[in-house]
């Protein structure tokens, strides 16, 4: 109410001077107290896709790759020991052969379409998955994946949570290919003959193709675990597949689409879709949240941190600069001290970046950007923003405390914290634009200039 009585010009003048002194203050501090910066190879949270994925399988129809162990990269990521990231890509009209693994998988479609079939002792379920669809594949479930599309590649990211071993899991393929032996072949002749009530020659010929190989008949072995399918075969396999229903968000076993929900944050610079364990039983099981984020070129996801979830971010499309802030221990005589450290990286497609819990992060989209994030340890996680109008934790600190904590006067601190009128996503260039226009001496800044 008081403010209304202050003449507008004077108010503007004060605001301008305040912003001037604050921005100088910050810059000086940045220059005098150098923040150490880790980028590229020295940044343990950044996994460049060219360097850190190991190929498990590759042929002309697609590939399967697994990301290096998180805990081996850095001891700051010890608690991700039991999580692995797998990427699968396949060409149109192909099949990834039936197999199971000693890991729970959380599968998300990043591009293209898939028909996923899960096989259980009492039946099977086939689902049509599209971009943004997610589905848990429980450990030990036999599954196979068809890319039914005639043109588009299918790209899938799986979060793997091994059950026998921390950090290691294996794929058990049912049939033999040149790349991989059928696990059934591990059994002795006597066990196989008795179990199938058949002669071993017949078993070998029909299941393992050992004799057929020479004849190159129908019985010859497949070249690899990703194979080509005929149109009729695809039509047949797709016929009984279900599209996911609207209700499937809360389903125990049906796939759900991250993009079907209203975004939790959205404005002209970006939007964030998120499904938490509270909303979906499959995610509750794994204690993981999933976010699917689009940021427009020139948009900035303002600094925020997750209260307890560690986030594994996978870039689907586009490029961004990311800044993560953490503390690094410094060895000084007798004393332990912690130094603020900036971990930055230039992200591009397929790159992975880990955001530890409590570490603030900001993402600057340098092109239109789309990424997927797995939040590990997600139950009751909260995202705390450090700027912006909504969900800003700093603005919840009482003025009296802000005044003591920061060098500026209480009023100035509050003004600065409340200045940003947008929330979550903002213009990454706004200050540069403002400075440019000030350089050009627009009428307002000329008036203000005469004030001091
Ligand atoms: C975002 O990146 C662009 C391009 O590199 C740069 O011009 C801009 O200053 C950055 N913005 C922020 C807020 O870092």
Summarize the structure in words.
- The protein is of the alpha+beta class.
- The chain folds into two domains: 46-243, Jelly Rolls (Sandwich), CATH 2.60.120.10; 260-435, Jelly Rolls (Sandwich), CATH 2.60.120.
- Helices cover 23% and strands 37% of the residues.
- The protein has twelve helices and 28 strands.
- The strands form four sheets. Strands 1, 20, 22, 23, 25, 27 and 28 form a seven-stranded mixed β-sheet that branches. A seven-stranded antiparallel β-sheet has the order 2-24-21-26-19-18-17. Strands 3-4-5-12-7-10-16 form a seven-stranded antiparallel β-sheet.
- A hairpin with a 2-residue loop joins strand 17 (265-267) and strand 18.
- The chain is elongated.
- The chain binds 2-acetamido-2-deoxy-beta-D-glucopyranose.
- Residues 300, 321, 364, 366, 428-429, 432 line the site of 2-acetamido-2-deoxy-beta-D-glucopyranose (NAG).
- Would you identify the CATH architecture of the largest domain? Sandwich
- Would you tell me the overall average pLDDT? 87
Q: How much beta, percentage-wise? A: 35-45%
Give start-end ranges of low-pLDDT stretches.
Answer: 1-6, 8-29, 214-218, 446-452
Helix content: 10-25%
Number of domains in the coordinates?
2
**What global shape is seen?**
elongated
Q: How many separate helices?
A: 12
- Main β sheet profile: 7 strands, mixed
- Secondary structure class reads alpha+beta
The span between the termini is: 26 Å
Please compute the radius of gyration using only Cα atoms: 28 Å
Subunit organisation of the chains: single chain
* CATH homologous superfamily title of the largest domain: Jelly Rolls
Bound molecules: 2-acetamido-2-deoxy-beta-D-glucopyranose
Q: How many strands?
A: 28
CATH fold-level assignment of the largest domain: Jelly Rolls
Q: What would CATH call the class of the largest domain? A: Mainly Beta
């Amino acid at each position: 109410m008081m403010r209304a009585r202050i003449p507008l010009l004077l108010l503007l003048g004060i605001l301008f001077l305040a912003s001037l002194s604050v921005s100088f203050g910050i810059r000086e501090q940045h220059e005098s107290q150098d923040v150490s910066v880790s980028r590229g190879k020295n940044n343990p949270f950044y996994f460049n896709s060219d360097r850190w994925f190991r190929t498990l399988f590759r042929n002309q129809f697609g590939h399967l790759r697994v990301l290096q162990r998180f805990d081996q990269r850095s001891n700051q990521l010890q608690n991700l020991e039991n999580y692995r990231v797998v990427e699968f890509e396949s060409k149109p009209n192909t099949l990834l052969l039936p197999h199971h693994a000693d890991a729970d998988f959380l599968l998300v479609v990043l591009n293209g379409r898939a028909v996923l079939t899960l096989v259980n002792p009492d039946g099977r379920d086939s689902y049509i998955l599209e971009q943004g669809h997610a589905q848990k594949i429980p450990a030990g479930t036999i599954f196979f994946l068809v890319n039914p599309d005639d043109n588009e590649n299918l790209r899938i990211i799986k979060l793997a949570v091994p059950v026998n071993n921390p950090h290691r899991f294996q794929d058990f393929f049912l049939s033999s290919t040149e790349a991989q032996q059928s696990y059934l072949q591990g059994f002795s002749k006597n066990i196989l003959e008795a179990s199938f009530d058949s002669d071993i020659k017949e078993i070998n010929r029909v299941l393992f193709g050992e004799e057929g190989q020479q004849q190159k008949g129908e019985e010859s072995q497949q070249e690899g675990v990703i194979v080509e399918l005929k149109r009729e075969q695809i039509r047949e396999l797709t016929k009984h597949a279900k599209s996911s229903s609207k209700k499937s968000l809360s389903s125990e076993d049906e796939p759900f689409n991250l993009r079907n929900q209203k975004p939790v944050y959205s404005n002209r610079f970006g939007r964030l879709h998120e499904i938490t364990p509270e909303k979906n039983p499959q995610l509750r099981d794994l204690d993981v949240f999933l976010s699917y984020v689009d940021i427009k070129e020139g948009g900035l996801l303002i600094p925020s941190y997750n209260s307890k979830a560690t986030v594994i971010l996978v870039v689907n499309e586009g490029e961004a600069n990311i800044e993560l802030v953490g503390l690094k221990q410094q060895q000084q005589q007798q004393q332990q001290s912690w130094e603020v450290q900036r971990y930055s990286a230039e992200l591009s497609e397929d790159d992975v970046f880990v955001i530890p819990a409590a570490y603030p992060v900001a993402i600057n989209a340098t092109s239109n950007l789309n990424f997927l994030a797995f939040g590990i340890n997600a139950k009751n996680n909260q995202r705390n923003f450090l700027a912006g109008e909504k969900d800003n934790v700093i603005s919840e600190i009482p003025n009296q405390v802000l005044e003591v904590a920061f060098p500026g006067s209480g009023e100035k601190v509050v003004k600065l914290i409340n200045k940003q009128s947008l929330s979550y996503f903002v213009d990454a260039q706004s200050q540069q634009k403002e400075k440019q226009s000030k350089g050009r001496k627009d009428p307002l800044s000329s008036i203000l200039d005469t004030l001091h």
